[in-house]
Specification:
Number of helices: 12
Radius of gyration: 27 Å
Structural class: alpha+beta
Largest sheet: 11 strands, antiparallel
CATH class of one domain: Mainly Beta
Strand content: 25-35%
CATH topology of one domain: Beta-galactosidase, Chain A, domain 5
CATH architecture of one domain: Distorted Sandwich
Distance between the termini: 43 Å
Helix content: 10-25%
């Protein structure tokens, strides 16, 4: 990663003798000498007027238009975003405080980058910095009621939902937002790309469905969603205060896009220019989690039974990752119900069967008393010594005490656990309640730490260092940002198998699909088909199909059913409840062996919404799409319990030229469709879903290379969709063949057309 470079020799400073015009690409920024404010426009279209910067310095709030003098500079930049030009406006206050507003434009990028630096006479204190703020009414959106503003939550705790809100009232979206029109898809995307110090947000005040009355890029924002304003617990805690000679806001990107969906993905990619995402050879994980049904009744024999069923019935039919493997994850209560020897036996069994052994883990939370000694500290620290306080009281979130990620005792605790996990051979960790480590607190062990995000970064960096590169890290309850310490992240809170839970998962997927730019795979949680007491027992096959569809089009693909006859399950009161393992097996054999469906997580990332205009009452899009080099996919959901979802989606709306349409296949039923020139007609029964796959005629032969090594060194074959095929099925190449197979035998790899 390139460092930010300011070339002082190229800097041109001018006094404020008149209006200053800054341009970059299609953007134009003009300074008004009379008001000391800016106007921002795109391609001749006014976007924001009356733009200024503001920050807190100590107890005071200073604003750029209060400056006694204003200076301007321009210089070249060469940093993680590439080469370009940066404009610098320095506002000097009568007190001597300086607000330095920067706007950087980069060659070939559709957005500009803005930030704010605050300096004073020596060390300053600040917990709030805003590089762009406008209170003037803006009318850059078309008239009508199809305009939306996107709400992005801080984390995925408490079953919080994304929002595609009409332009009415106030929205404070964490890190990023989009203001867009669902019909034209045009819109503005703005968001923070630095996540090392601040909790950032974008404030949007709207009215009349088409007016933006207020806009602000904020570094230093907390509320109840960050668990910092929980009045019932500890009281309101403001954002941490940074103490430095120069306090800098996060950098924000601001871009106008023909398609807001492209803009959200561009924002995600911009973040990875600052902090690259982690990669994983296997891509999206497939597998099983014990929490779905076995839950607190997890047992060694029950886990082994599930592993056997998946190995013998699902893996051979396409339920596996890019390397032919599946995860077997022991969730919460594994350390209560299994002995260490059983965990070791479980790990050995997984590796003998080409499976990935996984565990549940929480590094920044403590369920239980605070007087116990912290493991790995040689009885030097008790949990009360490493727990965070807010207003002098121990902080509790979700029933768990929050631990200080910077504390040496917390780090020794992590070292102890990671040494144990690696010694056992664990290769997958579900890390839960991570948000507990990102709260604002009275203080931290590291006295150079001033904010919750700063502490969280320190703790996560340490966790990753101890885990190394051989363990897939999947975040469960966690902030969206920072992301670079983990491979995957749950896109939602817990979800099982009802249609309402599918709709909840799809709300997060509808408006948070772009998070897959930051992680290997978005995680839609375990897919449960039968028996979860909180979900009302067995669900119908239609609801099962909808839930599995939500998993297939989001990313990670893990089931949570119990396939073991040897598990005694209990309800919330401790009474035994039926074990519907046979139902789970039957449903799995029917719904998890569709190779066309199973191929999707291997070859696609998260689907994105076709429109992005679901009503607040529905909260989830019914139409989702994805395009790769060979196919365009369309997923259609029906969240209703009384009426079918009937309609037609035009080829234009899913980005397909009708002349390029080849075979159209309904993947669940396996039928070949014959759509009209208008598009694809659908009729989805209640509580159900469909996936249609549109082949592109222009797809060239053999563009996908899907080599899959065999751990045993034997011959293994996979087709273009990553489906395992028998070695004997791959014969000699035939004339005019289109399907590519990749064979690996020992260290020899060869390509075969069939």
């Amino acid at each position: 990663m390139k460092r930010r470079l300011y070339i002082a020799a190229c800097c041109l400073w001018v006094a404020c003798a008149g209006a200053a015009d800054f341009t970059g690409g299609n953007w134009a920024i003009k300074y008004n000498e009379a008001t000391k404010r800016l106007s921002v426009g795109y391609s001749g279209r006014p976007i924001f007027d009356g733009v200024y910067a503001e920050a807190k310095v100590g107890a005071d709030t200073v604003r750029s238009y209060e400056a006694s003098t204003v200076g301007f500079g321009r210089y070249g930049v060469d940093d993680c975003f590439g080469e370009g030009s940066c404009y610098r406006i320095t506002y000097t206050m009568p007190s001597g405080t300086e607000l330095v507003q920067t706007f950087a434009f980069y060659d070939g990028l559709p957005y500009f980058v803005t930030s704010l630096e605050v300096t004073g006479n020596g060390t300053i204190e600040s917990n709030y910095a805003v590089p762009m703020k406008s209170c003037d009414t803006a009318g850059f959106m078309p008239s009508g009621r199809q305009n939306r503003v996107l709400f992005v939550p801080w984390d995925n705790d408490g079953f919080i939902r994304y929002g595609s809100n009409p332009l009415l009232g106030e929205t404070n979206s964490y890190s990023v937002t989009a203001i867009y029109n669902a019909d034209t898809r045009e819109g503005l995307v703005a968001g923070a790309v630095d996540h090392d110090l601040w909790k950032s947000a974008v404030h949007v005040q709207c009215s009349d469905y088409d007016k933006v009355n207020g806009f602000a890029l904020i570094s230093g924002y907390t509320d109840e969603h960050t668990h910092d304003s929980i009045l019932s617990e500890q009281g309101v805690m403001p954002h941490g205060t940074i103490v430095a000679d120069t306090v800098s806001s996060a950098r924000f990107v601001v871009g106008w896009f023909d398609d807001w969906r492209d803009g959200m993905e561009a924002f995600g990619k911009a973040c990875t220019m600052v902090a690259p995402k982690r990669e994983w050879a296997g891509g999206a994980p497939y597998g099983w989690s014990s929490w779905g049904v076995q839950s607190t009744d997890i047992s060694y024999q029950g886990v082994i039974d599930c592993a056997d069923f998946i190995r013998d019935n699902l893996v051979s039919r396409g339920f596996h990752d890019r390397q032919g493997k599946v995860v077997m994850s022991l969730d919460a209560w594994w350390n209560d119900n299994l002995t260490v020897d059983q965990v070791r036996q479980f790990v050995d069994y997984c590796k003998q069967n080409n499976m990935i052994p996984g565990l549940y883990y929480g590094s920044f939370c403590r369920f239980g008393d605070l007087n116990s000694y912290v493991p790995g500290t040689n009885n030097k620290y008790r949990f009360r010594d490493i727990a965070l306080k807010v207003h002098g009281r121990f902080k509790v979130v979700d029933g768990a005490y929050c631990l200080d990620p910077t504390h040496v005792g917390t780090k020794q605790f992590i070292v102890s656990d990671m040494m144990k996990f690696k010694q056992w051979g664990i290769e997958y960790l579900k890390c839960d309640f991570m948000s507990n480590g990102a709260i604002e607190a009275d203080s931290w062990y590291n006295k150079d730490c001033h904010t919750g995000v700063q502490a969280y970064n320190e703790g996560m960096a340490f966790l990753l260092k101890q885990a190394g590169d051989g363990i897939y890290i999947d975040l469960s309850i966690s902030p969206v940002f920072p992301y670079q310490y983990a491979h995957g992240r749950r896109i939602s809170c817990d979800a099982w198998g009802t249609i309402d839970q599918t709709k909840y998962v799809m709300n997060n997927a509808s408006y948070g699909w772009w998070v897959n730019q930051l992680y290997v795979a978005n995680d839609p949680d375990h897919m449960v088909m039968a028996l979860r007491q909180e979900a009302g027992g067995i669900q119908g096959e239609n609801a099962n199909r909808a839930r599995i569809t939500s998993g297939a089009i989001v990313g990670a693909f893990l089931t949570g059913d119990n396939f073991s006859p040897n598990v005694t399950l209990h309800d919330g009161s401790g009474k035994e409840r039926p074990n519907y393992y046979q139902t789970s097996r039957e449903r799995a054999l029917k719904l998890l062996t569709n190779e066309d469906i199973n191929a999707i997580p291997r070859t696609c990332k998260s689907f994105r919404p076709v429109y992005g205009n679901a009503s607040t009452a529905v909260g989830a899009e019914s139409l989702m799409t994805y395009e790769n080099e060979q196919y365009v996919y369309l997923a259609v959901f029906n969240y209703q319990i009384l009426v079918p979802n009937i309609g037609i989606v035009s080829f234009a709306d899913i980005g397909v030229d009708p002349s390029d349409v080849g075979e159209v296949k309904g993947l669940w039923a396996g039928e070949v469709l014959h759509p009209s020139q208008e598009g694809i007609s659908y009729n989805v029964p209640v509580c159900d879903a469909r996936i249609y796959r549109i082949e592109k005629k222009g797809h060239p032969d053999g563009i996908v290379e899907l080599s899959r090594p065999s751990d045993e060194g034997g011959a293994t074959a996979f087709d273009l969709l990553g489906r395992r095929i028998p070695y004997s099925a791959v014969g000699s190449p035939t004339q005019g063949a289109r399907r590519l197979y990749v064979l690996k035998q020992g260290n020899c790899v060869r390509k075969v057309f069939k």
